[in-house]
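Intended use. Records like the one below are meant for learning the mapping from a protein sequence to its folded structure. Do not use them to infer anything beyond what is encoded.
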Amino acid sequence: MNSRRNHLLLFYLYEMREGQFIRRNIDRWNNYQQPTEDPDETARRFMHLVDDLSYARTFYPFSNTVRYINGLAAGIFLSIYKNKKEKRSRISHFFSVELPLTIRRHHRTLLFAFIFFAICIAIGIFSALQEQTFVRSVLGDSYVDMTESNIAAGDPFGVYKMENEFEMFVRIAFNNISVSFYAFILGITFGLGTLYLLFSNGLMLGVFEYMFFHHGLGVKSLLVVFIHGTLEISAIVIAGCAGLVIGKSIIFPGTFTRLQSITSGAKDAVKIIVPLIPVFIVAAFFESYVTRYTGMPLWLSLTILLGSLGFILWYFVLYPILVENRYSHVD
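Structure written out for the chain above:
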């Protein structure tokens, strides 16, 4: 009888200890079921659960408490493993989802930048038509004289053959990336500096093309110059879009505070600038190593030109729309 009473007392004390253990930790365990993005907090939770699990296995080896804590610890362990996998695929996710969605949010700004740039090209052409000296005032006497000398010598695009390929590649790549950086950073001038950069580059392009059309080399210039120019000019317009995103975030904060709006706009602008770096590098490679072969077959020139244009239209216009539609259907 006494043995049975002692057994019941031990059992009662055993259950009481487990109950106290649960009551002391249940709020923390419940909190652990809420996800966190902080890796340090995740590690801290996992270590605490390991301690709790060790204690529970020692004193309540056959209890549901052990299974409960083990389940929490296993869930956090799997989340850590999953996060490691996600880090490896972060770059892929950025270029396939995050960046296209960012570009899509600013498609109207990109369209505005393109239209503004196209108008500036038209202004350059129109101004050159009205006044021949306008070409020299924009491009400079030395460049115009050199080009006219090359045309007279039968090699109108000889400027692309005058420099060592690698040195030319480094110089042009650095210059192109600098232009995109200036277009981006000038957004802090309420976008006015970015608009001026687009204006000056568009005006220069219009005058440049007029000069070749004036000498009956317009179509040839498109086939030669736009081998690299398609990527280069498109990237300048997109960089202009990034700068205007910053400018718009300053002028039109909407429902956000101005600081929140500027922070959000700057983040989006940086994302838009990131893919332009490889685009500018490829454009510099084409200009340095490919454009100099001005006598290449028509089909090859068109393949490079249309392939470049197709990439720009796909990745910066069509693909963002498809990604947005896909994710809106999921929601």
